Amino acid sequence: MKLKTYIDIHKGITGLVVLLLMAYYDQWHNPTAWIYLAMHGSYGLLWVLKSRTFPDKQWERPVSIAYGVIAVWGGLSLYWIAPWLLTARGVQAPGWYTALCIVLFTFGVFLHFASDMQKHMALSLRPGELFTAGLWRRLRNPNYFGELLIYLGFGLLAMSWAPVVILLLWVAVYWLPNMRRKDQSLSRYPSFAAWKSQSKLFIPFLF
Q: Which of 23, 54, 101, 134 could form a disulfide with 157 if both were Cys (CB 3.0 to 4.6 A apart)?
């Protein structure tokens, strides 16, 4: 199967997993659990929709069942620690704190999906050209920054340090090396040096 199949299934069933956790820990009357379900569950469905309408070519490669189950599902399942901690401990976040998490998630969804759509359309209409417009003008990986905000919103809502540490490990072990490899690949374009000099790798104004 393709790599994206394992990713899509995992992200697509996240809402069901959160519902099962709510049922197991009897969190039906916990508003924070419902908000988490709405955020993480909808994100998973949006990811599947994105995969079907404007897919990313890097997820199209076939992988073995062992890799799909152990590496992909095993790694992505670390993101389920946040809803487990939330439901198991009956976390009920203050209103202002919940609002902050929703804001992070909302901006993250916009950046992640809008930048991926921009990239998909640019590659479709002008294949072989370096795309440096729109959300990509000042940031070379706005989709990753958006995903960082999305998962930061999830992790903080659980009110535990563990999901944030897991997110930082994902950034260090997988995201940053992938961004570096992409920079190396794009350096073949004559205009890359100028783009790199006026843009950040990942986080606006910082890095």
A: 101
Q: Which residues are CB-contacts of 150 (< 8 A; sequence separation ≥ 6)?
A: 43, 104, 105, 108, 109, 112
Alpha helix locations (H) across 25-94?
31-53, 65-66, 74-76, 81-89
8 A C-beta contact, residue 102 and residue 156: no
User: What is the rounded CA–CA span in Å between residue 134 and residue 149?
Assistant: 19
CA angle 87–105–132, rounded 5-degree value: 145
Residue 5: Cβ within 10 Å count:
16
Question: Model-level pTM?
Answer: 0.93
Tokens at 117, concatenated: 């759509």
Distant-in-sequence, close-in-space partners of 11: CB < 8 Å, separation ≥ 6: 43, 44, 47, 48, 76
Q: What are residue 156's phi and psi, to 5 degrees?
A: -65, -30
Q: Is the pLDDT of residue 27 over 90?
A: yes
The count of other CB atoms within 10 Å of the CB of residue 119 is: 18
Give the chain's mean pLDDT: 94
Q: Is 127 helix (H, G, I), strand (E, B) or coil?
A: coil
